[in-house]
Amino acid sequence: MTDNAVSLRVCILGGPTLWRLGLHALLTGRPNLGRVTHAPDPAQVAEPPDVFLLDSRIADDFLSPVLASFPQTCLLVITDELNESAVLDSLEQGALGCIERDASLPDLLNAIRQVAAGEVSLPQAVALQLVTRMARQTAPQGNALPEPLSSREREVLTLLAQGLSNKEIAQRLYLSVRTVEGHLVNVYGKLGVHSRTEAALYAVRQGWVTLT
Q: pTM surpassing 0.70?
């Protein structure tokens, strides 16, 4: 995983040539992005990037080879349609996120930085659907934490589980975004999780928040 404060290396993989060239031109020179490359298939990737942008139309063929050849690289799938089944399939195969092909540039850049940091990156609506489905399939853990969450940490976690971004949580609780990020670091450590989705699922399983 890579700290999103440094320049991230991105490789656009698969899909039509003009699509790759267009995305390459769009991303080159953006803040926090270093070298941006593109390749038609994994065999033609010269050096491992921090993040692969993978066209969903070839994801089924490329996900396994990419993960085998570049196990430290994070994968973000760009897709025409976000539905629960397709997203879950991509995540189960090893991708860290999915984003729609018609997403805005700021949303794409944010998704790249999230997966580079080891976060699962999904639109809020899809993330909530998946968390709800997973929570209903698993009984509440009911285990006491080695170190309990503070009341503020629990507030932050509850809002995260409701699908709010760090900025939205900060606005809701009258905190700075940096303070929210600090609380989340503590929450992740206490829960033993590594992503927003895992943390949200824990909160749902514990009955701290109800998603419908």
A: no
